[in-house]
Specification:
It is built from 16 helices and 21 strands. The protein folds into two domains: 238 residues, ATPase, nucleotide binding domain (Nucleotidyltransferase, domain 5), CATH 3.30.420.40; 200 residues, 2-Layer Sandwich (Nucleotidyltransferase, domain 5), CATH 3.30.420.40. Helix content is 39%, strand content 19%. Strands 15-16-14-13-19-20-21 form a seven-stranded mixed sheet, sandwiched between helices. A six-stranded mixed sheet has the order 3-2-1-5-12-11. A two-stranded antiparallel ribbon has the order 4-7. It is an alpha/beta fold.
Length: 535
């Protein structure tokens, strides 16, 4: 793991006053140790598992998240070689849209219901078709979608009323960990805003959202700003992590807001583009910025900053589909080595821009932004006898890039031109995919030297909370750019030809998406009835 900001190794004196940035993600916790100039001193991870006890359910054990955080912090500190007493502050970022129900004794009644849990989808769809949908969006900045805790709570109330009656408090995964660590019951503005329950204008719990969910304000913690600071850690946990129990703890924000913060994308003309399994395209604005058509979300960060953008279900998962499909065939027909992600990227790079006119609508997992269509399905359009697996691989990469272009266009409508895009996520490990995106967007794409932008953003909140940096915007001065991908005019011209066809295909296929999704549900139900073990 390189020591880096500007590629420089840290000096021993840098280790006297240092900061911890913790990213409590969905699949693991990541922690970074930085000095006062944001040089990376150490990095650690702690994994935890998810369970899918039923179809569309996705839960985690709350205690495993706490254990994963302790492991990640201990590992980062051990790697860094810093003094345990030298931590000037820490902050925690949390994955958005999680939910835990607690009883009156503070014990979990549910696991951590993650953003990927789909059981609230029918409730969200019912609201989406009601007269309340537009009002809720205008107040909260959250389109009606099952990922939001509002609809998970509504599901619990409608489907498990007896359990619902036992609930004293609904919290996020980060709140659970934060309370164990500090004893404080508090939620940051960003996570609160990403619940569908907070008014994004007033930064108070939204009365209509509470009414729809069937809960009271005292079911929820007090929303607070990200630089709210506490002192005093639970001694046992402090010792296990390797820091002083008197370390200042800065409340911080969500992983999404932290990703922008840690990439230095802190102005409306700077976007972040993240592609991991899924993807996102986001900007920071100085006021609530809502889309009249409800295509994007708008989450509060603090009293003067809002995060505006969209998320896509289909990022790296599209390549996973192709890799798994090919490897299943290989395993059934030969003993050859399995195909890797790098192999697919290499194959995609062997064909020309535009994949010889093959267009992919990459809706393998439905769609979130901008159309919020669970019934959207993947399509390859333009296949001929001249196409092979290389073209399919490239069309997947380009199809995801077109999804990001659609979000960029909507954001540009709302806030004006976006001059640069900063990249994070696994896709930055290749050179081809970032270049495709730069040319598709016709914008410079900048990759920060430190790719784990969410945990670095958490470290910046720790620094801001204790006075280590003067402002949110000043974090941009601490970011070093490792690579810049500039649009290639010839490639951009090809994508300008293909994108209108791509967009038109989506509009034309909307009715067919609904029809085929219903057929698939009917067939799945028929299969389950014939073979109960397949459920």
């Amino acid at each position: 793991m390189p020591n880096q900001r500007a590629g420089r190794r840290s000096n021993p004196q840098d280790k006297e006053g240092w900061f911890l940035g913790i990213d409590l993600g969905t699949g693991s916790c990541k922690c970074v140790v930085v000095d006062s100039q944001a040089h990376i001193l150490g990095f650690g991870t702690g994994d935890y598992a998810s369970s899918t006890t039923q179809q569309k359910w996705n839960e985690q054990d709350p205690d495993s998240l706490l254990a994963g955080m302790v492991r990640s912090v201990h590992s980062a500190i051990e790697q860094s070689g810093v003094k345990a007493t030298g931590c000037a502050g820490l902050s925690i970022g949390g994955a958005m849209h999680s939910l835990i129900a607690l009883d009156h004794s503070g014990n979990p009644l549910t696991g951590v219901i993650t953003w990927a849990d789909g059981r609230g989808a029918p409730q969200a769809q019912a609201v989406r078709q009601s007269t309340q949908a537009a009002e809720l969006y205008d107040q909260t900045g959250c389109p009606a979608h099952g990922m939001y805790p509002l609809y998970k709570i509504l599901w619990l109330r409608q489907e498990h009323p007896a359990l619902f009656e036992q609930v004293a408090r609904f919290i996020t995964a980060k709140e659970f960990v934060f309370q164990k660590l500090t004893g404080q019951e508090v939620v940051d503005y960003s996570l609160a805003s990403g619940s569908g329950l907070l008014n994004t204008h007033t930064l108070k719990w939204n009365p209509l959202s509470l009414e729809v969910a069937g809960i009271r304000p005292d079911h929820l913690a007090q929303p607070s700003g990200p630089i709210t600071t506490f002192r005093g850690l639970e001694p046992f946990l402090a010792k296990a992590m390797g820091i002083s129990s008197q370390t200042p703890v800065v409340l911080g924000s969500s992983d999404a807001a932290n990703s922008n913060f840690g990439a230095g994308a802190v102005n409306p003309w700077q976007a972040t583009c993240m592609i991991g399994t899924s993807g996102a395209f986001r900007i920071v604005t100085g006021q609530p910025t809502l889309d009249k058509q409800g295509r994007l979300w708008c989450y509060a960060i603090d009293e003067t900053h809002w995060l505006v953008g969209g998320a896509i279900n289909n990022g790296g998962i599209t390549l996973s589909w192709l890799k798994d499909a090919l490897n299943q065939t290989v395993s059934q027909t030969s003993n050859k080595t399995e195909i890797s992600f790098d192999d697919l990227i290499s194959l995609a790079g062997q064909v020309e821009t535009g994949a010889n006119g093959l267009i992919c609508l990459p809706f393998f997992a439905g769609e979130r932004s901008p159309n919020w269509n669970l019934n959207a399905r993947a399509v390859f359009f333009g296949l001929t006898l001249q196409h092979d697996i290389r073209h399919i691989a490239r069309s997947l990469l380009e199809g995801v890039a077109f999804r990001l272009r659609s979000l960029n266009e909507i954001l540009s409508e709302l806030v004006g031109d976006i001059d640069e895009v900063r990249a994070s996520g696994g896709f930055t490990h290749s050179e081809l995919w970032p270049q495709i995106i730069a040319s598709t967007l016709d914008r410079n794409l900048l990759a920060p030297a430190w790719g784990e932008t969410s945990c670095l953003g958490a470290a910046f909140w720790a620094m801001l909370g204790v006075g280590g940096i003067p402002s949110f915007e000043s974090a941009g001065d601490l970011i070093t750019i490792a690579l810049q991908y500039s649009p290639i005019a010839k490639e951009a011209a090809v994508y300008d030809q293909l994108y209108p066809i791509y967009a038109g295909l989506y509009e034309s296929l909307k009715p067919a998406f609904d029809q085929i999704a219903q057929v698939q549900r009917d067939l799945a139900l028929s299969t389950a009835e014939q073979n109960p073990r397949a459920r």
